[in-house]
Amino acid sequence: MSTVKIPPVLRSSTGGEKEIAADGSNVGEVLRELASQHPDTERQLFAEDGQLNRYVNVYLNDEDVRVLQDLETPVRPTDTLVILPAMAGG
Amino acid sequence: MIEPRLDNRPCGGKYADIVAAIGHTPLVELRRLSPKPGVRIYAKLESYNPTGSVKDRVAKAMIEDAESRGAIRPGQTILEPTSGNTGISLGMICSRKGYPLKVVMPDNVTEERTQLLRMYGAEIVYSPGAQGSNGAVARALEMAEADPSYYMPYQYGNQANPLAHYNGTAVEILEELDDVAAFVGGLGTGGTLMGCARRLKEENADIQIVAAEPLQGELVQGLRSLEDGYIPPILDLSLLDRKIFVSNRDAVVWTKKLLADEGMFAGVSSGAVASIAVRVAAELDEGNVVFVVPDDGWKYLSSGVYTKSLEELEGSLESASFW
C-alpha cells in the first residue's frame, strides 16, 4: 500500500490523521481510495469532472503529478503521495 | 613575451545609473558539483544585480512597462505583495523614480529584508507569517481594491515579469553557452521559469525545464481550506517538464554545500535549486545544466544558516520563510 501524507488544512477531514495508507496502481486510484476511507476529502480533492481541484497539488514522492501523468501517474506500493495546498512564493 | 601596453583609459561610463546596471550577471561553472564528466553545471548569479537579487530585473521591467503604458502617474504610490526581494528591488527603483512604495510582506521573513526595505524608504505592511505569501497576496489585493490611488504591479500576474527573463536572463544564457540540456529555476511567482522556458525552448524544444519549489513548513501553511490556495496567474505548467519540491532542511543542506564546495555565498532558495540541478545533472549522460541563483546570503545571516549546524537549526526550519 502507498502512503498518502495529509496537509494540516485537510486533517479535519481525515480524523486528524497525518498519513493514510491507500491502495491503487495510479495516483487517481490511490486518492479515490483515500476518499472512500474519508468521504469528506472527496469534494476537496476532486472537481466535478473528476480531475484534481485547482488548488490541490499532489506529489509522487517529491514530483508534482500534474507535470507527470496527472491522475494516471503510476504508483508503486513503496511510493508516497504528498498532498499540499497551492502556496505562493516570490 | 612582451606584455601589451596598458593605456590609461578613462572610465567609459558603461552604465548611466544603478538601474542600468541590472542584468548581465555572471554564469559560473560549478565543477565540484558536477556528478560526472561530460555533464557541466552552471550557476547564473543573479545576486550580482544592484540590490542583490534576480528581482531587480522584474521590478525594472514592471515599472518601465507601466510607465510606457501611462499606467503610473508621477508620484503615485506603488503597492506590491512580496516575500522581500521584489519589494527591495522596487524600493531601489521607486526611490530613484520618485514613487512612494508600500509593500505587503509576511511577518516571518528575516530581519534583513525589513531593514533593506526601510533603507530604500518603503512602507511595510505585515501579513501573518503563518499564511505565507498567500496571506501577503490576499492582503495586498484587498488594499488595492479598497483604494484605487495605488498602482499594483502584481508580479504574480504581470507578464512584464516573465518577459524580463525572456528578454534578459535567457538571452544571456544563450549568449554564453552553445547548448543547454536542462534549466532549473526556483518556483516563486513563476516568472523566471516561464520567461526562460519560452525563450530557451524557442532555441531548442528539447531543453528540459525543471522547477524547484519550496515545500512550505506546516507552520506556514495556515490556510482555512484548500480553496485559500493560490496559483500565480502567469504560471503555465505546460511549459515545465518537471516540478519538484524541496524542504527547507534540504535547501539549507545544499546552501551550505554551495558555500563549502564552491565558495558560493548564496541565499537559501539557491541551495534548493542547486539540489535539483545536481539531481537532473546526474540523470544526464552529457550536457550543460544551468540553474539560477536568485540571491546571495546576506539577507539570511541572522537565520544562522551559514554558521549553525543543522541540528541547531532544526527547530526553526518549519516556520522559516526563505523564498
In short:
The complex is a heterodimer of chains A (90) and B (323). Chain A is an alpha+beta fold and 90 residues long.
Task: Report on this structure.
- The complex is a heterodimer of chains A (90) and B (323).
- Chain A is of the alpha+beta class.
- Chain A has one domain (2-85): Ubiquitin-like (UB roll), CATH 3.10.20.
- Helix content of chain A is 17%, strand content 23%.
- Chain A has a five-stranded mixed sheet, covered by helices on one side.
- Chain B has 323 residues and is an alpha/beta fold.
- Helices cover 37% and strands 16% of the residues of chain B.
- Chain B contains nine helices and nine strands.
- Chain B has helices at 55-68, 85-97, 111-119, 132-146, 160-176, 191-203, 248-262, 268-283, 310-317, and strands at residues 27-29, 39-45, 78-81, 101-106, 123-127, 182-186, 208-215, 242-247, 287-293.
- A six-stranded mixed sheet of chain B has the order 1-2-9-6-7-8, sandwiched between helices. In chain B, strands 3-4-5 form a three-stranded parallel sheet.
- In chain B, helix 3 links the parallel strand 4 (101-106) and strand 5 (123-127).
- Chain B is globular.
- Chain B starts with 26 loop residues before the first strand and ends in a 6-residue tail after the last helix.
- In chain B, 52% of the residues are buried.
- The mean pLDDT of chain B is 91.
- Chain A binds chain B through residues 7-10, 44, 53-56, 59, 62-64, 66-68, 82, 84-90, and chain B through 81-83, 85-86, 132-134, 136-137, 155-156, 186-189, 191, 211, 213-216, 218, 220-221, 223-232, 237, 240-246, 323.
